[in-house]
Here is the input.
Amino acid sequence: MTHPSDTPCFRTMDINDFLKRSVVNFWAADTVCHMLDEAGFTRLHATDSWDIRPGEGYYITQNDSAVFAFVTADTVAGVVPFRIISAHSDSPCFRVKPNAEILSDGRMMKLNTEVYGGPILSTWFDRPLSLAGRVVVRGKDALHPYIRLVKFDLPLMTIPSLAIHYNRQVNDGYAISRQKDMLPIVGRLPENEKPEGWLTRLVAAELGLRIEDILDYDLSVYDTTGPETVGAYDDFITCGRLDDLSMVHAAVTSLINAVNQKRNADFTRVVAIFDNEETGSGTKQGAGSPILDYVLRRINASMKQSEENYMRSIADSFMISADNAHGVHPNYVEKQDPTNHPVLGKGPVIKINANCKYMTDAVSAAIFASICHEAGVPVQYFVNHSDTAGGSTLGNILTSQIPLRGVDMGAAIWAMHSARETASIADHNYVISAFTHFFSRLDNSSSKTL
Ligand code: ZN
Here is the structure.
């Protein structure tokens, strides 16, 4: 059995550095692009004609928040299946509303925000918080503005709890108002400064731009506390956004690993990082859009292959939909299914649902388990306790666009959608080993699995 740490890693970024840089969806996409640039991938643009060659790495972005990276097969004629790993760049957080500045007593200023996705709201209280996102800058004409990313590294704000003396029920469970309780406070505004346009002035100063050139922005609140290793045996990593950035990191690292092994492949390897999974994937950069189908079709067209060959290739393709799973919580063992208890540190988790919230079926579960077995990686299974509805993910939404075979899986984590989630470091290495093997399976004897 190969130990996960024996998996060769080349010029890839460490998970801690990846998480520190990827504070919101736009920065996660930017960090992925940075890793791909470092590994020698070529950036493509949707508006250009693509001239892609066999055996080389490329990527394209969508909305600055989704990334599709691929390494073309060495053989381009006939049926060239795709091996795809998908994950998502977004995490539950707070988005800044327009005209966000609100002045309170003593010129104390707070920002008006809206909840994005389904965070555990209470975990955002009393943390050092800051802002990051995308800024729209005046361009050559109204239809073609420039995009700049912005990230304030220093804590700019906090959401203070109400003192227990004003809320005696605080430890007994109480309703949290998203509009009243969750607005971050940025500090006392000086007497000579107006609240109107404060945020635009801050962004302009940070980017060295004129205020009048800033047309709009998508800014989100993030916790400035970085990743930490936790546990008496250094077992765990704790950080915001592990769902799903740990899978994004594993997928991109594995693609770069596979490419660096410089072995021929008769299939095209694809990493698809979607945005907006946490709000139902219904955007042009989400898994509910035709974007992945477009990218795969364009690869096929650029290789001068027929539509029939594309259909044949899809029929022989396989996707790993990678989104984290619930590990059994030692304080709430009864919440888990009676016979399936995914444990942190015991390997990637195959996610199964009788009502097809996941794309996994017996065939795709067996294929993924075989891949893990060949890579020396243990696997576990997750199904909901039958009295619990559970969540959804990318896989089944994607299959409404492309009839791909595939499996839903993820690493087991605790506190999903908390401002700080906890995962196992061993599991992360296991996942990278399994993904790298999926992208590296080459000889005929082993490819029988697929
Ligand atoms: Zn997720």
Observations:
- The two ends are 21 Å apart (CA to CA).
- The chain has ten helices and 20 strands.
- The longest strand covers residues 93-103.
